[in-house]
C-alpha cells in the first residue's frame, strides 16, 4: 500500500436534495508520483471526486466509504491534515485569487498555517519565481491574464508543499497559449517537487500527459487505462464527450479511402513513420 | 452591401493617465454574407473591435459603415436600437446574461425589445430553442436549473431569435464538450448559409480553417492581416513570429514533410487525407 | 484593457508614494486639525504653503488635484459667499436687507474658501498616492486597539481586502452584462422612472448570480487552501516604518510650531 497515495474504497456521495448519488460505489487508487487524468462529460461526477479527495465534501457514509490520502484516512478530525497534503487549482482563475497582489495570494495558504513571517517571505519569493511570475510579484489580479492567475494559483499550492496537486478543469477557461504554459509548468513542478498530479479535464492534450486515465460516467468508473488504450476506444470517447484524437480521425478518414494503418499506430509520430514507409513502397 | 471600416481608431480613457490605444487606424472591408474569423491574442484588440460592430463603443476617430448605418465619433446614443437588431453580439460565456424566470421568457427578451409582438416573440423563441438543440420541455424551466452547456445554448438562442443580419460571436464554443462545439459551429455555418454574416472571434485555428471564408488577424490594436484562410496559414514563419498557431492538419503535413513525405499544405483534415491518399495511390495531381 | 481606477490611486514614484500609509493617514488628519488653528493671514499663508508643498511633492499634474476640487467647487464657493455676505465687521462697503459686504466678511470668505480647498487637496494627496489596500491596512492599524473590545480586526481586514480585490472583477462583469443586454436591445437610459427601474432587472439579476458564484467559488478555494477562520493566522503583509516616514513627522512638527507661533502674532 505504500506506493498508493490516494485510495478510494466503495465511495458513494450524494448532493443534498438529489435523487441519485453523484458518485456511486467508486473504488480506485492512484500511485505516488504519477499523473492521473480523470475524464468524463459534464455532470459525470468527476469534479465531485476532487472535492472528496480533500474533504471539501464528505461521503454519505464514512463507515462504508473509505478515502485514504497519503496514509491518512479521511474523517472529521483528519480533514485539515488531508488538506495539508492536497492542493487544488480550480477552473475560474479569478474566483480563487484571494490576495490583493500576487505575493499576497501566494502567502494566503502560509498565513493559514501560521508560518512565521520571515520564513513566509522567503517561501513566497521562491514560489513566485518558480512559476515564472517574479516580475509580477507586486501586481494586482486585475492586471493579469487568466493564464498568469492560474500560475499564481499553482505558486500558492507549491508554497505549502503538498503531496498531491489536483487540476480541476484548470485550463478550460484559458486561451491556447495560456493552456500550454500551464501544462508545461505543471509538468516541470511535478518533477521538481515530487508531486502526484490528478487532472480533471475535457481536454485531450491534457489527458494525453497522464500515466493513467480514469473514465467516469454517471458517477461510476467505467474504464481505466493508459491514454493510448483509452483514446483508441473511439466509441467510448464519443460517449464521454471527448474529442477523438487527431491520429484516430485521420486513420478513420484514410481507411475510408482504402489506406489501412496498423492498429498499433497510436501517435502522430508513429503515423508519420507508417505513412512514410507506405510512400517508399510505392 | 459590405462592412466598411475607414481609419478607425479607439482610445481608452482619453486624457487620463490610463490612456491606452484600443484600435489603431483600422481600415478594411468585409463582404456581407460571409463567414469571417477574427483572430489574435488576448488583448490584441479583438473585443474592442467587436464592440464597434454595433456601436457599444464608438470610434475615437474614423468611420464605420455597417448594415446601412454609419457610425462616427459623433453618432448619438439614441436610435441605435435598429442597428443592434441588425448587428448583434454574443459575448464570451454568454450564459452570464440570463436573468428571466423561464428559458422561453429569456429568449423572448431580445425579440420583445425589438418590437416583436408577444405571439411572434414566443413563436421565434420556441423555434430557436429547438434550433440550438434543446428539447421543448426546457422552455418552462428556470434557466438556472440547466447545465452550463444548456445555458450557453439558451443564451445563444436569445440572440439568434431576432435573426440579426450580422452576428458576431466571441468564442461561443469555449468550455463546451467536443460534440457540443461541433453542433454549435454547424449551427453558425447554417445561419451563414441562410444569408447572414457570421463573425467568429476565436483562438481555434482548426475552426478558422474549417469554417471561415475570410480572416482578420489583430495584434496590439492593429490589423496585421486580412486574407482568406489558405493565404493566412501559408506563411509559417509569419505565423510563428506573431505567436499564432496553425491548423492541426497543417502541422501534421509539416511533420510528414520533414520525414520526407512532402505534400501540398492542407487546411482541413479532409484535405490532408485526400492529399495523402492521392500521393499513396499515385494519382497525379498538380 | 479594462483597467479602472479603484479609489483615485494614480501610479507614481515620488517619495510621497513611499511614505508609510499610516503616516500619510495620520498626517492628513493632523493637517486638517492644524487648518483650524489658523486664525490670521499669517496662519493661513503658512498652512496654504504647506498644503501646496504636499501637492507639489506628489509630482502629479495640477489637473489631478483640480479634478478633486471640481465636484465640490460650487459648495465651496457657496459657503464662502455666505460667509462673505452674512458676516459684518470692520469697514462696511455695502448693505442691503440682510446682506452685508464688509472687510471682515471678505476676509472670512477667503478663509473659508482656503479651509475647504486645503482639506480637499490634502485628502487628494493621500488618496492618489496610496492604494486603497494600503489605506485599508492603515485603517486596520488604527483600529487595532479595538481588539481589546473583542472586535475581530483580522477578519474585518480580510473582508475589506477581498472586497477591494473584487471591485475591478465585478466592475468588468457589470460592463459585460450591460453590453450583452444592450446588444439584445436593452435601453438603460430610456423612458420614465418605472421603465428605467425595470430595465435594470436584466442587469442586476445576472450580476447578483455572478457575485453569488464568485462567493461560493472563493469560499471553496479558501477552505481548500487551509483557511479555518482568522484565529491563529500569521500575516504576510505588514507595514514597516522607514526613514522616509521622518519627512511627514518633521512636516507635522514644523507645521505645528508655525501654527502656534502665528496665533501669538
- Helical content of chain B stands at 25-40%
CATH superfamily of the largest domain in chain A: P-loop containing nucleotide triphosphate hydrolases
> Which class do the helix and strand fractions of chain B yield?
alpha/beta
Largest sheet: spatial strand order of chain B: 6-7-8-3-9-10
Major sheet size, sense and barrel closure of chain A: 6 strands, mixed
Give the chain pair forming the largest contact, with residue counts.
Answer: A-C, 42 and 30 residues
EC number (chain B): 7.-.-.-
Subcellular location (chain B): Cell membrane
Family (chain B): Belongs to the ABC transporter superfamily. Energy-coupling factor EcfA family.
GO molecular function (chain B): ATP binding; ATP hydrolysis activity; ATPase-coupled transmembrane transporter activity
Characterise this structure.
The complex is a heterotrimer of chains A (282), B (286) and C (265). With 282 residues, chain A is α/β, with parallel strands linked by helices. Chain A has helices spanning 46-53, 79-85, 102-112, 117-130, 146-159, 176-193, 204-208, 227-232, 234-239, 246-256, 268-281, and strands at 4-13, 23-31, 35-39, 66-69, 72-73, 86-89, 164-168, 196-201, 212-217, 220-225. Chain A has two domains: 4-234, Rossmann fold, CATH 3.40.50; 245-282, no CATH class. In chain A, the strands form two sheets. A six-stranded mixed β-sheet of chain A has the order 6-7-8-3-9-10, sandwiched between helices. In chain A, a hairpin with a 2-residue loop joins strand 4 and strand 5 (72-73). The model of chain A has no long low-confidence stretch (mean pLDDT 91). With 286 residues, chain B is of the alpha/beta class. Chain B has two domains: 33-58 and 77-230, P-loop containing nucleotide triphosphate hydrolases (Rossmann fold, 3-Layer(aba) Sandwich); 247-286, no CATH class. Helix content of chain B is 38%, strand content 22%. Chain B has helices spanning 46-53, 81-86, 103-113, 118-131, 148-160, 178-193, 205-211, 229-232, 236-241, 248-258, 269-280, and strands at 2-12, 20-31, 35-39, 61-66, 69-71, 87-90, 166-170, 197-201, 214-219, 222-227. In chain B, helix 3 (103-113) packs across helix 4, helix 3 packs parallel to helix 5 (148-160) and helix 4 packs across helix 5. Chain C is mainly α and 265 residues long. Chain C folds into two domains: 13-130 and 241-262, no CATH class; 152-223, no CATH class. Chain C has helices at 15-18, 21-35, 41-57, 62-69, 73-86, 103-129, 132-143, 153-183, 193-199, 201-224, 246-264; strands at 92-96, 99-102. In chain C, strands 1-2 form a two-stranded antiparallel sheet. The longest helix of chain C has 31 residues, at 153-183. Chains in contact: A-B, A-C, B-C. The A-C interface holds A 51, 54, 56, 80, 83-84, 86-88, 90, 92, 94-101, 103-104, 107-117, 120-121, 124, 140-143, 156-157, 160 and C 3-4, 133, 161-162, 164-165, 168-169, 172, 213-214, 217-218, 220-228, 232-238.
Amino acid at each position: 500500500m505504500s506506493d498508493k497515495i490516494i485510495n478510494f474504497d466503495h465511495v458513494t456521495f450524494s448532493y443534498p436534495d438529489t435523487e441519485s448519488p453523484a458518485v456511486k460505489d467508486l473504488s480506485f487508487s492512484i500511485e505516488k508520483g504519477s499523473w492521473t487524468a480523470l475524464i468524463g462529460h459534464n455532470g459525470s461526477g468527476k469534479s465531485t471526486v476532487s472535492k472528496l479527495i480533500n474533504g471539501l465534501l464528505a461521503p454519505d457514509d464514512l463507515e462504508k466509504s473509505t478515502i485514504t490520502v497519503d496514509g491518512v484516512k479521511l474523517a472529521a478530525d483528519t480533514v485539515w491534515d488531508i488538506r495539508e497534503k492536497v492542493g487544488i487549482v480550480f477552473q475560474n482563475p479569478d474566483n480563487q485569487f484571494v490576495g490583493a497582489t500576487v505575493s499576497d495570494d501566494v502567502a494566503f495558504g502560509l498565513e493559514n498555517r501560521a508560518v512565521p513571517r520571515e520564513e513566509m517571505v522567503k517561501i513566497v519569493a521562491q514560489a513566485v519565481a518558480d512559476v515564472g511570475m517574479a516580475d509580477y510579484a507586486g501586481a494586482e489580479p486585475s492586471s493579469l491574464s487568466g493564464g498568469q492567475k492560474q500560475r499564481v494559483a499553482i505558486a500558492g499550492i507549491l508554497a505549502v508543499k503538498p503531496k498531491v496537486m489536483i487540476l480541476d478543469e484548470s485550463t478550460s477557461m484559458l486561451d491556447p497559449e495560456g493552456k500550454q504554459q500551464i501544462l508545461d509548468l505543471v509538468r516541470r513542478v511535478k518533477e521538481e517537487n515530487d508531486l502526484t498530479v490528478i487532472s480533471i479535464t475535457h481536454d485531450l492534450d491534457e489527458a494525453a500527459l497522464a500515466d493513467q486515465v480514469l473514465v467516469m460516467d454517471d458517477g461510476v468508473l467505467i474504464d481505466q487505462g493508459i491514454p493510448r488504450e483509452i483514446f483508441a476506444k473511439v466509441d467510448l470517447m464519443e460517449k464521454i464527450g471527448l474529442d477523438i484524437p487527431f491520429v484516430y480521425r485521420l486513420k478513420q478518414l484514410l481507411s475510408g479511402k482504402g489506406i489501412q494503418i496498423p492498429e498499433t499506430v497510436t501517435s502522430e509520430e508513429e503515423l508519420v513513420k507508417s505513412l512514410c514507409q507506405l510512400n517508399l513502397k510505392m | 452591401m459590405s462592412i466598411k471600416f475607414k481609419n478607425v481608431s479607439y482610445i481608452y480613457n482619453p486624457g487620463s493617465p490610463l490612456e491606452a490605444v484600443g484600435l489603431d487606424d483600422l481600415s478594411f472591408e468585409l463582404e456581407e454574407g460571409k463567414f469571417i474569423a477574427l483572430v489574435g491574442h488576448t488583448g490584441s484588440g479583438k473585443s474592442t473591435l467587436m464592440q464597434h460592430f454595433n456601436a457599444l463603443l464608438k470610434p475615437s476617430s474614423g468611420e464605420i459603415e455597417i448594415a446601412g448605418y454609419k457610425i462616427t465619433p459623433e453618432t448619438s446614443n439614441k436610435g441605435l436600437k435598429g442597428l443592434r437588431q441588425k448587428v448583434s453580439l454574443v459575448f464570451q460565456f454568454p450564459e452570464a446574461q440570463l436573468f428571466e424566470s423561464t428559458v422561453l421568457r429569456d429568449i423572448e427578451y431580445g425579440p420583445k425589445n425589438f418590437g416583436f409582438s408577444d405571439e411572434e416573440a414566443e413563436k421565434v423563441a420556441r423555434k430557436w430553442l429547438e434550433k440550438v438543440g434543446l428539447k421543448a420541455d426546457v422552455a418552462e424551466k428556470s434557466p438556472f436549473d440547466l447545465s452550463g452547456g444548456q445555458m450557453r445554448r439558451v443564451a445563444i438562442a436569445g440572440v439568434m431569435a431576432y435573426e440579426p443580419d450580422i452576428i458576431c460571436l466571441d468564442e461561443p464554443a469555449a468550455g463546451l464538450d467536443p460534440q457540443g462545439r461541433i453542433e454549435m459551429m454547424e449551427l453558425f455555418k447554417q445561419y451563414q448559409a441562410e444569408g447572414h454574416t457570421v463573425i467568429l472571434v476565436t483562438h481555434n485555428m482548426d475552426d478558422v480553417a474549417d469554417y471561415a471564408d475570410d480572416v482578420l488577424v489583430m495584434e496590439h490594436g492593429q490589423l496585421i492581416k486580412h486574407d482568406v484562410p489558405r493565404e493566412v496559414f501559408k506563411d509559417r514563419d509569419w505565423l510563428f513570429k506573431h505567436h499564432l498557431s496553425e491548423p492541426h492538419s497543417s502541422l501534421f503535413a509539416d511533420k510528414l514533410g520533414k520525414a520526407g513525405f512532402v505534400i501540398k499544405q492542407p487546411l482541413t483534415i479532409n484535405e490532408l487525407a485526400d492529399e495523402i491518399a492521392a500521393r499513396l495511390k499515385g494519382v497525379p495531381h498538380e | 484593457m479594462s483597467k479602472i481606477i479603484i479609489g483615485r490611486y494614480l501610479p507614481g514614484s515620488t517619495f510621497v508614494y513611499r511614505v508609510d500609509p499610516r503616516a500619510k493617514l495620520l498626517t492628513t488628519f493632523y493637517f486638517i486639525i492644524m487648518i483650524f488653528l489658523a486664525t490670521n493671514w499669517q496662519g493661513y499663508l503658512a498652512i496654504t504653503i504647506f498644503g501646496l508643498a504636499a501637492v507639489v511633492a506628489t509630482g502629479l499634474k495640477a489637473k489631478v488635484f483640480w479634478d478633486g476640487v471640481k465636484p465640490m467647487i460650487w459648495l465651496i464657493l457657496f459657503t464662502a459667499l455666505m460667509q462673505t455676505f452674512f458676516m459684518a465687521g470692520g469697514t462696511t462697503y455695502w448693505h442691503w436687507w440682510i446682506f452685508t459686504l464688509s472687510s471682515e466678511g471678505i476676509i472670512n470668505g477667503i478663509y473659508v474658501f482656503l479651509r475647504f480647498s486645503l482639506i480637499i487637496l490634502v485628502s487628494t494627496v493621500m488618496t492618489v498616492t496610496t492604494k486603497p489596500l494600503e489605506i485599508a491596512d492603515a485603517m486596520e492599524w488604527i483600529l487595532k486597539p479595538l481588539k481589546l473590545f473583542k472586535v475581530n480586526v483580522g477578519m474585518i481586514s480580510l473582508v475589506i481586502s477581498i472586497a477591494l480585490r473584487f471591485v475591478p472583477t465585478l466592475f468588468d462583469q457589470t460592463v459585460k452584462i450591460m453590453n450583452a443586454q444592450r446588444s439584445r436591445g436593452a435601453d438603460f437610459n430610456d423612458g420614465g422612472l418605472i421603465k428605467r427601474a425595470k430595465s435594470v432587472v436584466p442587469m442586476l439579476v445576472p450580476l447578483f448570480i455572478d457575485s453569488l458564484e464568485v462567493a461560493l467559488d472563493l469560499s471553496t478555494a479558501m477552505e481548500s487552501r487551509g483557511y479555518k477562520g482568522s484565529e491563529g493566522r500569521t500575516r504576510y503583509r505588514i507595514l514597516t516604518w522607514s526613514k522616509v516616514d521622518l519627512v511627514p513627522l518633521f512636516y507635522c512638527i514644523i507645521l505645528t510650531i508655525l501654527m502656534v507661533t502665528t496665533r501669538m502674532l
